[in-house]
Amino acid sequence: MRALRVLVALSTLAFVACQKPAPQPPADSSAAPAPTASAPAADNLSPANLADGQQVFRFDTFGDEQFWTDTARMNEVVQKSVSPTTALSVGLKVDADVIPPDVAAAIKAGKVDLKDPATTVTLLKLNAVVGLKGTVTTVNGKDSLTRLGVTCALCHSTVDNAFAKGIGHRRDGWPNRDLNIGAIIALSPAITAAQKKVYNSWGPGKYDPRYNIDGKSTPLALPPAYGLASVKNETYTAEGPISYWNAYVAVTQMHGHGNFSDPRLKIDVKQTPDMVTPKLASLRAYQHSIAAPQPDAGSFDTNAAFRGQTIFVKSCGSCHVGGSGTDNNSGVLHAPAETGMDASYAMRTANKMYRTTPLRGLALHAPYFHDGSAATLMDVVNHYNEARKLGLTAQQRADLVEYLKSL
Hints:
Blueprint: H1 2-8, H2 47-59, H3 65-71, H4 74-81, H5 84-89, E1 94-95, H6 101-109, H7 117-125, E2 132-139, E3 142-150, H8 153-156, E4 157-159, E5 167-168, E6 170-172, H9 181-185, H10 193-201, E7 206-207, H11 211-214, E8 220-221, H12 242-253, E9 260-262, E10 267-269, H13 280-289, H14 302-315, H15 336-339, H16 377-387, H17 394-405
Parallel strand pairs: 1-5
Antiparallel strand pairs: 2-3, 4-6, 7-8, 9-10
Helix pairs in contact: 1-6, 1-7, 2-13, 4-7, 12-13, 14-17, 16-17
């Protein structure tokens, strides 16, 4: 009953076409792999393999508990300080589907204290916190969080808030733009005051995947991981295909136990056993199976979007091409100055340039650009109207925004 009472506390807590492209057969990203230890063959789309990939995406830590528990001591932080109120305030999400019905009913009643960290431990015991995996042991009736790790879903899943804000059904592939990763990491007692200052500067929905590599900080907006089936390179700077990025993040950012090598970045990590590479093929297949969400009904003006499509084809279609919505599938990259982008992040990468970002589910994942510097789609249009000297009138820009909402 104590566990039930504790759990109750949680609650109050683009392309050129006239329609969205149909899902395309996954491109074989192993055809021209970037330097990495893994290059899976073509996707196995069998139900069993997709189920395996979903399991990896949602629950596999690749052994990163060794870092997050033994080094960062985040289990201690959660055990002592992370109440449900705190967890939800920094953007952590809860999978309502694993909460027992009677507990869900009690949650809706809002009967108990919301500030008890033991509630969070109980949720981890239920495997209900999206992207976190905890090992909870019970001694003399008291739960203790002994191990803690992170999964892909921490940054690249959210929930639909069907139960309450931050609590609902999983939405895999959606970027968690509420997640304040930096603020969470800054809670670790194992990092310096200077590092805490950097982490706390990032803000919700942003993460710098190079900070622990080069010590610089130019955080990126967490990208969506849906609609990738026809996209060859899933990084803002096109350093490699999706399995390249999965391996990079799993080994160098999640601190999983595996192999990753890219001589361009002077990174060469080899660990035994390799708990990452054998899982990349099923993980990629699952990610490729996640379609981009459709725009909400009534969320855009149909007539204006029709007019905006013509403007898009004329003004944007040379880069946002074909079913993929990006000319990068043909190997094209763009210098930052070409599109008026801040060059700071690109200069820290192998290619020093940006790819054209595919346009998928745009209205559902603001802010925009690699650094999240455009808060709205109108900000995006205004930026390119000036940077590319498009000469669009106010009405044309408004129509173009409605078209972008339809993608």
